[in-house]
Prior knowledge:
Layout: H1 4-11, H2 16-30, E1 42-44, H3 49-64, H4 68-77, H5 82-87, H6 93-99, H7 109-113, E2 121-123, E3 130-132, E4 136-138, E5 144-146, H8 147-159, H9 178-188, H10 190-206, E6 211-213, E7 223-225, E8 234-236, E9 242-244, H11 257-267, H12 270-279, E10 280-282, E11 289-291, E12 298-300, E13 306-308, E14 314-315, H13 343-385, H14 391-394, H15 397-423, H16 434-465, H17 473-505, E15 524-525, E16 527-528
Parallel strand pairs: 1-16, 8-15
Antiparallel strand pairs: 1-7, 2-3, 4-5, 6-7, 8-9, 10-11, 12-13, 13-14
Helix pairs in contact: 2-17, 3-4, 8-9, 9-10, 13-15, 15-16, 15-17, 16-17
EC number: 2.3.2.31
Family: Belongs to the RBR family. Ariadne subfamily.
Pathway: Protein modification; protein ubiquitination
Amino acid sequence: MASDDEEEECGYFYDDDDAEEDAAAGLEQAAAPPPERRADYWAITQESLPTAQKQDLSTVMNFLNIKQHQARALLIHHRWRMDGIYDHLDKGRERMLRDAGIVLQENNIMAAAGSTTPWRSVHCNVCFEDIPMGVVLTMDCGHCFCNDCWTQHFYSAVESGKKQIRCMQVKCPAFCDEDHVRRLLGRKYPEMAKRFNRFLLESYLEDNDSVKWCPSAPNCGRAIRVGTGERYCEVECPCGLSFCFNCTAHAHSPCPCTIWEKWNAKCTEGENIKWILANTKSCPKCFKAIEKNGGCNLVRCNCGQCMCWLCGGGTGLDHTWTSIAGHSCNRYKEETRGKTKDTSREQMQRYKHYYDRFKIHGDSYGVEKQKLGPTVLERVRLLEADLKRPLTIRDGDWLIRAHRRLLVSRQVLSRSYVFAYYMFGGELRMQPAGRAGLAVARNLFEDQQEQLEQHVERLSELLAGADAVAMPEAEIVQAKQKAVTLVKTVERLCGEMYKCIPDELLTLLVEPMTIAAYRPDGPDKAEELTA
Length: 531
């Protein structure tokens, strides 16, 4: 039989000086951190899983005045979404429970069991034996069978992987009380009772739309729970990994999940594309890529067209050691657009344009995080330790905040090129009326992207050279003012881009897409849920 501890665990689961002072005071106010946001993101470990489960179970049990197994069945039915339960309350309590397969306690238990001698024995309709009252069990639905039959029924259900076990009565939709299941299995099959307990705990993770495993590799063993209705969000696990809660890929806003998935698949072809661009040229007739495998600069395509490898122009077949008949390419000629159109190579060049910018900003993010980050922290430490300076000058939080905004905006810039590659490449299906407004929306987006790029580079340059320890006080105030201004501008431009994408661009597409909200400090951090 399962111990009481086990049952409890699984149960819930201007003057220059004045100017400097005024500027410093104004900057302090401008750089003040925003009010702390209530934690809606929790990191759940194996130890805190029962606590997380108990919170939701207790809420439903108290709200609807039902038992624990009934609350669990209702939550599983609604994928552990409290808003789903609230949305169905207009049906009435009884109907809502009935739709979820929950039957409330019947009053006439003995009559439902078909017993003619209710105070002495009950006839079990499974084994067809008259069973003493002390060894029978009645569920909420009123159906009564002997303990042995119930035990075998529970054993078979758990063995097949079920965590919700229905009554044995034919066509009865009621779920069995999990306390009864645990108690009977614990007497005869304690290992199966433990497995059942594990199933109940795992259901909180497997059947819950608000909980997903952290996709870190190697796995950190945490699951992240988000607030109700926050499917499209990005969250940072305590292990340090930031990921998109909707698709569990690495954080990728302002890029929608569908586009990010396409990009990852495209990037697997990236090395091949780079090799093709570097080592092949396109046939001027069929536009297929041709690789040169000999020393002669006259190359012949499989379609029969001959071409000069030096310039890529079409030629005849006759040639000597020094020249190709009817062809000369030693003189530079302006390329004539429109005569020949190498579509495949243009597509590769277009991909390379966006990929290079995606990677350049990604590489800059890595350098600014790994090298500039420790440098900024060391400068702040030394500045705050210099007791000879005024307190307002020693405060180096503005450096830390500016560096944090720099990292976030770098990632926004990098991913914005992924979005632009697909949005403006004709690969996404447009609404019939969408193409007319695409050009205007594109100009708006690219203008925002260009401005953001310029200000991010300025902020990066400022932080790289802002050695506040060696600066006079006047220069520190000036650098601080510039940093705060740039941070505000970068935040505004990022916010405008995050508004432009869903409002002006994604609405033009046939397939509905959504992006996570902009967070100036990056993805919200999940807090460890204590057991």
